[in-house]
Structure formats: C-alpha cells, structure tokens
Design goal:
Blueprint: E1 2-6, H1 9-26, E2 31-34, H2 41-54, E3 62-65, E4 67-69, H3 79-86, E5 98-99, H4 108-121, E6 127-130, E7 152-155, H5 158-163, E8 178-181, H6 184-188, E9 192-197, H7 203-211, E10 229-234
Parallel strand pairs: 1-10, 2-3, 2-6, 3-5, 6-9, 9-10
Antiparallel strand pairs: 4-8, 7-8
Helix pairs in contact: 1-2
The structure holds fructose -6-phosphate.
Fructose -6-phosphate binds at residues 35-39, 66-67, 131-133, 137-139.
Length: 244
C-alpha cells in the first residue's frame, strides 16, 4: 500500500481530482468506481471545478457506484441522488454510462447479479475510489466473521446508520437497515484502488488497515492483498500510523 499524506483534506481532494482528470484525458473510456459519503465531497467539488475550467470530456467515461440503500427515496436521499447533485449534473457523462445499484428493485438478489454482470461487461473497473468507515468497512462490507465476496444485500451496523443520518433528516430510525453493496472481491478486482480518509475519527481504522493483520473484523485490511492501492490521508487520519 502506498500512503500519501496531505496537510489538509482540500489538498488531497485537489490532487486526486487532477489525477482522475489526467486519467480521463489519457483514457477517454475510463471505468471509474465511485464512493459516496462525506469524505469524497471535496473531491467531487474539485472535479466539478476542474472540469468546468479545463473543459474535460466525460462522454465516454463509465461510472459504477459502490453501494445504495435499500428502499431509500421514500424516506430519505438515495446515494444516486447524492451523486447527481455532487457530480453527475455537472459533467457531460452519458446517462447510460452511470451505473448504480437499484435499492428499490423487486428482486434484490437479481439486482446484485445484474451489477456483477455489468461490471464484467465493461471489462472491470480501472480505478476504484473508496472511503472507509470508522469500523473499517469499505463499501457496505461491514465487519464480521466472513466477508461477502460479491455484490450482495448488506445489513448495516447501527454505527453506520448513525453516520448516515445526514441523508435522512437526522433520524437514525429512518436510515434503512439494509443496503446493496459491491462485495470484497468485486472491489479487490479493480485494477487500481484509491482510498481516501480524512479526520481523526478514521485514524484507528486507517492504522488497522495498513499496519494490522488481514481480518474480516476490519474489512479494509483485505486491501493489503491488492497490488495497487494508494491510501490518501490527511494529517488527522494519519495520526495513529507508526511511520508518520
Ligand atoms: C459509501 C461507502 C462507505 C463510505 C464510508 C465512509 O459509498 O462506500 O464505505 O465510504 O462509510 O463514509 P464517510 O465518508 O461519510 O465518512
């Protein structure tokens, strides 16, 4: 794992946005895996600004988001809506190239299988952006005795639901208990992975992921097995690393 430290989260976001735009310019058909949540908001802001300033062409790019709440939309915001506001509405992505899990599908198992097929048909993910949960989850692969390899219906920990209340009028009981998520192997199959972590509340998970054992009780630790992972951290999230 390569660790890149930045003084400020804004500098991290700017560096990653510049890197992603360079990739799009070199590889117009880039397949990008995206994450939602608070961490990548600065990244999406930078992508909006740089796209406008440089006239970046996203028309051939494909995006695949990691996860989606089951049933959201009626009770709060879907991650799909979040992405629309944060990025999709501001770049010239082709609607048909925006790939999302549908948390309102009648058959959730079939929806997960469809997503795996879509990823395969696209030839896999070139670069996957990840955040990390305070409990070490990636996507919605929550800690457990075993991890789901492929896209699946995930039961969310209370701590995860509590951290997502900002999308559900601040009410934890409104945050769905279930979500759809790419599995651990789905994520690890990406050719490159960039994980972002900012803020002191991520420091323990970041340290465990990089310096601890590979264990399903800290799902992000499986990234140690991947040959091309970059962890981009701000000073606070790097605060517990032994080599600072
Ligand atoms: C969201 C996702 C999650 C988040 C994680 C951190 O698509 O995959 O794993 O990355 O929960 O969320 P924030 O950034 O809100 O702390």
């Amino acid at each position: 794992m390569r660790v890149q430290r930045f003084e400020q989260a804004a500098a991290l976001a700017s560096a990653l946005a510049a890197d992603l735009i360079g990739r799009i310019q070199r590889t117009p058909r880039l397949v990008i895996g995206l994450a939602t949540g608070r961490t990548p908001m600065l990244l999406y802001r930078e992508l909006r600004l740089k796209t406008a300033a440089q006239g970046v062409d996203w028309s051939l790019v494909h995006t695949l988001n990691l996860d989606e709440f089951v049933g959201a939309g009626a009770v709060g915001q879907r991650y799909r809506d979040f992405m629309q506001e944060e990025l999709f509405a501001h770049v010239n992505l082709d609607e048909r190239h925006i790939h999302f899990l549908d948390g309102r599908a009648a058959d959730l198992g079939a929806e997960c299988d469809r997503y795996e097929r879509t990823i395969a048909e696209l030839g896999g993910i070139d670069v996957q952006i990840l955040g990390i949960g305070v409990n070490g989850h990636i996507g919605f692969n929550e800690p457990g005795i075993a991890l789901h390899p492929r896209t699946h219906v995930a039961r969310l920990e209370l701590s995860t639901r509590a951290r997502n209340t900002w999308l559900f009028d601040g009410a934890v009981e409104r945050v769905p208990e279930l979500a759809l998520s790419m599995g651990i192997e789905t994520i690890v199959d990406a050719r490159e992975i960039v994980l972002l972590a900012t803020g002191a509340e991520k420091a323990e998970a970041v340290q465990g992921m990089i310096e601890g054992p590979v264990t399903p009780t800290l799902p992000a630790s499986v990234l140690q097995r991947h040959k091309s992972v970059t962890v981009m951290v701000d000073g606070d999230a790097a605060g517990r690393l032994s080599r600072r």
